[in-house]
Design goal:
There is one protein chain. The protein is mainly beta. Helices cover 4% and strands 33% of the residues. The protein is built from 1 helix and 8 strands; from the N terminus they run H-E-E-E-E-E-E-E-E. A 4-stranded antiparallel β-sheet has the order 1-6-5-4, with no helix packed on it. It has a 4-stranded antiparallel β-sheet with strand order 2-3-8-7, with no helix packed on it. Strand 2 and strand 3 form a beta hairpin.
Length: 134
């Protein structure tokens, strides 16, 4: 009997830090971009159709949860739709944050359907060092 070895590709730093992302259905219906700045991590979440007041951001332990609930919309009865593709459903995304995030300084901004959550690093997590050339 021959054994076959399967090599999984190694994850990049961002994949390792945010590897435990959880979605409501396993699908990425509200896509997110996560990137790394020198002093912070940034999560951008595409949530068009929601008002800023409809979006809720909470933090429990190291889990950041972003959710929004669809308000009841009036049914249009007089219109005859040939095709109806607009739909908006409840949104719930969770991200397990690295311990290097300063949870007291997290802030969020919502513009043009994109929610931008800034996750600053703790001071001791930001490594700054000058190296002299000899």
């Amino acid at each position: 009997m021959n054994m076959i070895r399967f090599n999984q590709p190694t994850l990049g730093l961002m994949d390792q830090l945010f590897s435990n992302t959880i979605t409501d259905s396993g699908k990425c219906s509200y896509p997110a971009n996560i990137y790394d700045n020198t002093n912070s991590f940034i999560i951008e979440l595409s949530v068009p159709g929601f008002a800023k007041e409809d979006i809720r951001i909470s933090l429990e332990q190291q889990t950041l949860t972003i959710s929004a609930e669809v308000k009841q919309q009036e049914e249009v009865k007089d219109e005859k739709f040939l095709r109806r593709e607009f739909c908006l459903k409840d949104m719930n995304r969770s991200f397990i944050l690295p311990k290097s995030v300063d949870v007291e300084k997290i802030n969020a901004d919502y513009r043009n359907g994109v929610l931008k959550v800034t996750l600053p690093r703790k001071e001791e997590a930001v490594v700054k060092k000058e190296i002299t050339i000899q």
